[in-house]
Amino acid sequence: MGSYQTWLGEGPELSVLRLLGLFDRPVDEQALGVLLIPPAIPDLTESLTNLGATEWRRILAKLRRARLLAGEDPHSPGHLDTHPLVREYFGEQLRSQRSDAWKKCNRRLYDHYRALAPQLPDCFRDMEPLFQAVVCGCNAGLYREALHEVYIPRIQRGNASFAANILGARGALLSVLAHFFEQGRWGSPVEVGVQEFSLTREDKLFVLMQAGLLLTATRGVGTPEARICYERAELFCHSANRPVDLYAALMGQLRHSSATDKLTTTLRLAERVHALAQQQSEPALKLGAYRALASTLFFLGDFEPARQYAMLGVQIWRSGSVQHRIEEVTGPAVACLYNVALSEWHLGAIASCHANMAEAISLAKRTNDIHGLAAALSFAAFLACCDGIPGEVERLASEVMRNVRASQFCSLAGASKGSSRLGP
User: Which residue, 417, 404, 410, is CA-closest to 175?
Assistant: First the structure.
């Protein structure tokens, strides 16, 4: 790439390649036009602003002859595309050597993409410009603005977790959220010097909790990056006196521990969650604490206390007293129901076992709890296998696979369509 740069010399062709380096996909005329309108971006677009159509075509033709620009796509007229290595080279050069121009470009794109999307998109296609807006905002150093003007109110819609739970775009969200962290370091939210745009302590806690949840949902409960996020979040919770967030941080660590540590270690975490819930007298925390104890005790083989704790959780859920919703990978009510069922089967209460497992599956479907549904179906298949009903095992296993494929499709579609790196 260096030889091409020497051959072209500083001029409009190199400016076009650097602009393409802002994107991870073909760039459309609208986005490119935002970058080329006056006033010119210093040290980048002076030679491209106010160009005539003939001169613009000449520049593009020269780049195409050099195989640095793809031929025009008849299905996407006006779009410009180049090889990913070309984008990576000139994008990194723009970011590292002309940082002011890099930030000004991303500021313009941030304003463009957040205006392009509906205020509250209800499908992935309409939501995608908002993903791009957040990435551009972070690239421009507007971390707090991108978080509070786009990510929280328009993408996740506050506590509704719309993009994650309704659209299933967890892969896309994770790709976007990565831009709030130091490159490649999930436990380290970005630090910038300008107070007006930097993340506050509460903002850092929020992005750590979001990252831990999405990493667990997309990569599994044993992913070490999720544990790092939750451990770092716990420190923020103690210093800020945030008991609800502390509960979520401890539950995140417990999920990781259940897959990687001894069960006695997991039980100590469950007991910490239970103690916290008892101190706060918050029904949602108590429900989660009973779920944590029930699950851990079941796998330790203590079936009767596991059933009792799970039933306490079910009773709280049935009472309707849980008003404060805490985002979890698996809904605690679903988990309590299938833990009741599993414990009952081992204690010989077969009829009530199957009724509770059926209710767990129904509740997971009704609440769009993808991970809870997969778990409940898997446990139901396990019990059917133990009961010697091969046809039921096959049916449930097929349903589990359909659920997993649907979840993977949403996650992969989000990651591929919504990554919107727009620069290194």
Answer: 417
pLDDT score recorded for residue 412? 41
- Contacts by 224-231, CB closer than 8 A, 24 or more apart: 224/256, 225/186, 225/187, 226/186, 226/252, 226/255, 226/256, 227/252, 227/253, 227/256, 228/186, 228/187, 229/186, 229/187, 230/256, 231/187
**Cα dist from 59 to 24, 31, 48, 232, whole Å:** 21, 18, 10, 50
Q: How far apart are CA 66 and CA 235, in angstroms?
A: 54
Number of other CB atoms surrounding residue 96 within 10 Å:
10
pLDDT in tens, 41-76: 999 999 998 888 899 999 999 999 999 999 888 888
- pLDDT, residue 193, reads 61
Taking 50 as the pLDDT cut, the residues of the chain under it are: 409-424
Angstrom distance (rounded) from CA 291 to CA 393: 26
Hey, is 315 helix, strand or coil?
Answer: helix
Using omega within 30 degrees of 0 as the cis cutoff, is the peptide bond preceding 332 cis? no
Q: Which amino acid is at 161?
A: S
The C-alpha angle 379, 332, 216, rounded to 5 degrees, equals 80
3-state secondary structure of 27: strand
C-alpha pair distances (Å), 267 with each of 87, 191, 288, 290, 310:
49, 35, 14, 12, 15
Structure confidence at residue 405 (pLDDT): 67
Closest Cα partner for 234 from 256, 214, 251? Answer: 251
Q: How many residues does the chain have?
A: 424
Cα 261 from Cα 329, distance rounded (Å) = 19
Position 370 scores a pLDDT of 84
